[in-house]
Write a structure and sequence with these properties.
Blueprint (H helix, E strand, L loop, with lengths): L6 E8 L3 H12 L4 E4 L8 E6 L4 H18 L7 E6 H6 L1 H7 L5 E4 L6 H10 L16 E5 L1 E2 L10 H5 L3 E2 L2 H13 L4 E5 L14 H9 L6 E4 L9 H10 L6 E3 L7 H7 L7 H11 L4 E8 L6 H14 L3 E6 L17 H24 L5 E9 L7 E4 L11 E4 L8 E9 L4 E4 L1
Parallel strand pairs: 1-2, 1-3, 3-4, 4-5, 6-9, 9-10, 11-12, 12-13, 16-18
Antiparallel strand pairs: 7-8, 14-15, 14-17, 15-16, 17-18
């Protein structure tokens, strides 16, 4: 049954990383009709699920989400058009998934990303009315700007190059036009994101420095943040450029180190196997006010108690502002899947919990130092539990991955930047009064 081509009731969810969210926003904004979001799936004309399949846990979440929706809509008199897209489809293929879950009306693979709007438009309306667009789902304060697709690195634990393909940088002219459109909607913070932001332009001659400089010239841009900075891309020249660029570019460094011990890094296929500490030192020496976020994988095949102890000391000594820890997941199709000396899952999870407990005290100390200071807070959204309270962030808190700042007082509203007194801290969050 064809749907109304001018208005569409939609229920959607994007699982996994911010890149998926951007893909969803582009798709829904490109259908050429007015989108009405509904909270109940049974009232939707279109259900869209953008999946993640990076690790086994993400696969399980994606599959469970799809099956729950299939069960919920199976006996509806007026069944929504059910679309599943993204990494799960790219990893397992349409044929196998369609055989297992026939309730899905349309599967969209990541390799066909540019064709998603036309494919869905044809399926929904019987004709193509797709056009360029983007429908923001993050509210008025911030937006992700995806500057590239795919990855040229071949880490032993990672499925992304097989799922998303090789590096493909987006033309800077397209990115600047998209940024201008976001700013015209009132967005105050733009966060550049890719599998490796430092790799931007290596495939098509574009310049990351030029892109950053052009974005920083936008007068209404309050904060510019870079996420997913591959360690080897942070050479001294680039770090000096970032330091000297200044506001609105933030001295915020999201550097996925993954481990500290050279033996483990070598087995992971990370090309900086001897340099994890040197990379952190280089960033802090050149950019003294740098805030560093990183991620680690524990329980990688061959990781011994001595390797893990090395990692714990590394975290204690370097005192990262933000840290995420993942228990290694054995993924088919990766080199590490067949490695000997697989670490039992229970041990990997225990190491994850131990490292996160160590980081909790580091985070407490880091945040306590800001109590009593006055800082600008970018307000994201009303707090759902406490009337009058809002969720916001100070400059060293990236959206969706770091803690947040709870803020109240006059002038506090989504999209506003408010000068606030930091009055309290907890393990990962701050409280502020305007």
């Amino acid at each position: 049954m064809q749907r109304n081509a001018t208005s569409l009731a939609v229920w959607s969810v994007s699982l996994g990383c911010p890149k998926n969210r951007v893909d969803t926003e582009h798709l829904l904004g490109s259908l050429g009709c007015r989108i009405r979001f509904v909270k109940q799936r049974g009232r939707a004309e279109l259900i869209f699920v953008n999946t993640c399949a990076f690790i086994e846990a993400a696969v399980r979440e994606s599959v469970q989400t799809i099956l729950q929706i299939a069960q919920a809509i199976r006996n509806l008199k007026k069944r929504p058009f059910f679309v599943v897209a993204g990494c799960l489809v790219g990893r397992y293929g349409v044929k196998e998934l369609a055989r297992e879950i026939p309730e899905v009306d349309l599967w969209l693979e990541s390799c066909d990303l540019a064709l998603w709007p036309e494919l869905l438009s044809q399926a929904l309306f019987g004709h193509s009315q797709a056009k360029a667009g983007r429908l923001l789902s993050t509210g008025p304060s911030y937006a992700w700007l995806k500057i590239g697709e795919g990855c040229r690195h071949r880490c032993a634990f990672c499925t992304i190059p097989d799922i998303r393909g090789p590096l493909r940088s987006t033309a800077s002219s397209e990115l600047l036009a998209e940024a201008d459109a976001l700013l015209a909607q009132g967005v105050r913070e733009i966060d550049l994101v890719a599998q490796d932001v430092t790799d931007y332009g290596r495939d098509n001659g574009e310049s990351l420095k030029t892109l950053i400089s052009e974005l920083c010239r936008r007068e209404t841009l309050f904060w510019l943040r870079l996420l997913y900075l591959y360690p080897t891309g942070l050479d001294e020249d680039f770090l000096r450029f970032l330091r000297d660029t200044g506001a609105p570019l933030l001295p915020y460094f999201d550097i996925p180190l993954q481990h500290s011990h050279p033996d483990v890094l070598s087995r992971m296929g990370r090309p900086f196997a001897q340099d994890a500490a040197r990379i952190v030192d280089r960033v802090r020496n050149i950019v003294p006010d740098a805030v560093i976020r990183t991620t680690f994988i524990v329980g990688f095949p061959g990781e011994t108690e001595a390797h893990f102890a090395h990692l714990c000391r590394f975290v204690e000594e370097n005192r990262f502002s933000h840290l995420g820890v993942f228990a290694y997941a054995r993924e088919e199709g990766t080199r590490a899947y067949d490695y000997p000396d697989q670490v039992p899952q229970a041990i990997a999870e225990a190491r994850r919990d131990e490292l996160m407990e160590l980081q909790r005290s580091v985070s407490q100390d880091f945040l306590t130092a800001f109590v009593g200071q006055k800082l600008p807070v970018l307000v994201d959204s009303p707090n759902e539990e406490w009337p009058g309270l809002h969720n916001g962030r100070v400059w060293f808190q990236a959206p969706e991955v770091d803690g947040q700042t709870y803020v109240s007082g006059p002038g506090v509203a989504p999209g506003q930047v408010v000068s606030c007194d930091i009055v309290e801290s907890s393990d990962y969050d701050l409280t502020a009064l305007a």
